[in-house]
Amino acid sequence: MQHAVGSELPPPHQPGHAPAWSPAAPHPGPPHHPGPGFSGAPAGPVPPVPHHPAPVPPPPTPETTGHVPLPPGGPVGMPVPPPAMAAPADPATTILAVLLIGPAGAGKTSVAKYWADHRRVPTAHISLDDVREWVRSGFADPQSGWNEHSEAQYRLARRTCGFAARNFLANGISCILDDAVFPDRPVVGLGGWKRHVGPGLLPVVLLPGLDIVLERNAERSGNRRLGDEEVARIHGRMAGWYGSGLPIIDNSQMDVPQTARVLDDVLARSIASPPQW
């Protein structure tokens, strides 16, 4: 086969035979004979080869989104009441850690979100139910029966919420957490939150009437909607907060903005005289 340009390709190398062509082979053509007196060295002085230094790479451009050191989140201490002659602390501008307690259907999440949205300082809302539902495969739904797995996931979610709250607070961001904490389980409930967040956590109970709770629960969907009997049982246990010394808000006849304003009033009193719990 002949190419349109150039000479014929060399035959392929066969095993057992010396290659017919290699890149080191001399180019075919008449032999070259140097002239008389040629010794292999160039005639006259050899000009120096100019030296070009290797280019220096430019310094790396500093990243605009590098690591930002954050203060570690330690336990939250008790709030310091203002001096007697000072104006009362404004809960809308004070860095706070709030725990909103109540049964399913009390409106905890709605009030917590609204309160956090309308503050004049950075505020985070941390919902225990949201954190529990981070578990996708293997989620232990308490509606399927309370067991060691659902108990373990509740404890893990509370501890995760506590870590998050402490980190937010250490970096100047208030927090409001919501959870259905029972008064008859002080070690797991309030005791657990005090361990995870710190003694400066301000608990407030949101406890409307049973008929309101049943009505609001009926509007829920998914695994957050409970049966009426379960809602009534939880509401009955929550009644144990009366007489506990914790502030209680009956929001049966209040909408979300009204409840948030009452929450501010309750927190102002809690800052001036922290509850003992």
Secondary structure elements and pairings:
Layout: E1 97-101, H1 108-117, E2 123-127, H2 128-132, H3 148-170, E3 174-179, H4 190-196, E4 202-206, H5 210-218, H6 228-238, E5 248-249, H7 256-272
Parallel strand pairs: 1-3, 1-4, 2-3, 4-5
Helix pairs in contact: 1-7, 3-4, 5-6
**Residue windows where pLDDT falls under 50 for at least 5 positions:** 1-7, 17-27
The CATH C-level name of the domain at 97-272 is Alpha Beta
**What is the 3D form?**
elongated
Query: How confident overall, as mean pLDDT?
Result: 78
CATH-derived topology of the domain at 97-272: Rossmann fold
Side by side, the strands of the main sheet go 2-3-1-4-5
The CATH superfamily name of the domain at 97-272 is P-loop containing nucleotide triphosphate hydrolases
- Architecture (CATH level 2) name of the domain at 97-272: 3-Layer(aba) Sandwich
Strand-residue proportion:
5-15%
Main beta sheet, described?
Answer: 5 strands, parallel
Multimeric state: single chain
How many beta-strand elements? 5
Counting helices, strands and paired strands, the structural category is alpha/beta
What is the chain-wise order of helices and strands?
EHEHHEHEHHEH
Helix content: 25-40%
Q: End-to-end span in angstroms? A: 98 Å
